[in-house]
Amino acid sequence: MPYFLDLGAGPAEEDCAQLGQTPDFDTLNRLEIEAYKCALIARYGTPPRGCRLAGLSNRHDFGRYVTLVLHIENELDEAVAAYAEQVEEGLATWIEAGFTAPVIYNGQCPTVARHDPSEIIIGALTTTRPGPDGRFPIDDFAILHGNLAAAFPAEAAIAAERLKASA
């Protein structure tokens, strides 16, 4: 029977847009959901067939907000069950995925660090890149970089070109 796991609006220990309080809430909420989806893919890889990460619209007295969910269509599949178990707790911080926060909350007016989800991915690919010798400065970076490059080949190519141009 299909069901879903609600993973929240972003990493548990990070600030995120607040319905009824944050200016331009809808835009920031959508950006953070997309960034969180990409961050989970960086950490755990692309969801296997039988499940998918997507936004889920929720109604509240103050309006509509979106959270990220893992839609599970085949819970009996071992790969799906393993993936669901991995992502169930989500992330605590953006840095667990090599990401910087897409929005900075420092007072009344949030600052959008990167408006385009592709640029968020490219930033994470740049952060987690291997050194000139092909080795990763932190072992975990190999996992994050590999998962992102596999899931987002166009962004990986752009990140590689930018790094090559800056060398």
Brief descriptors of the model:
about 40% helix, 5 helices, two-stranded antiparallel sheet, three-stranded antiparallel beta sheet, alpha+beta, about 170 residues
The number of distinct β-strands equals 5
Q: Rg from C-alpha positions?
A: 17 Å
Task: Count the domains.
Answer: 1
| Structural class assignment | alpha+beta
What low-confidence regions span 5 or more consecutive residues with pLDDT below 50? none
Tally of helical runs: 5
> How would a crystallographer describe the biggest sheet?
3 strands, antiparallel
**Content of β-strand:** 15-25%
Terminal CA distance reads 52 Å
| Overall average pLDDT | 93
Main sheet: which strands, in order across? 1-3-2
* Helical residues, percent: 40-55%
Spatial shape: globular
Query: Which H/E pattern describes the elements?
Result: EHEEHEEHHH
Question: Please, could you describe this protein's structure?
Answer:
The protein is an alpha+beta fold. Helix content is 41%, strand content 18%. It has five helices and five strands. A hairpin with a 2-residue loop joins β2 (51-60) and β3 (63-72). α1 (25-44) packs across α4. The chain is globular. The mean pLDDT is 93.
Describe the structure in brief:
This protein has 167 residues and is α+β, with helices and mostly antiparallel strands.
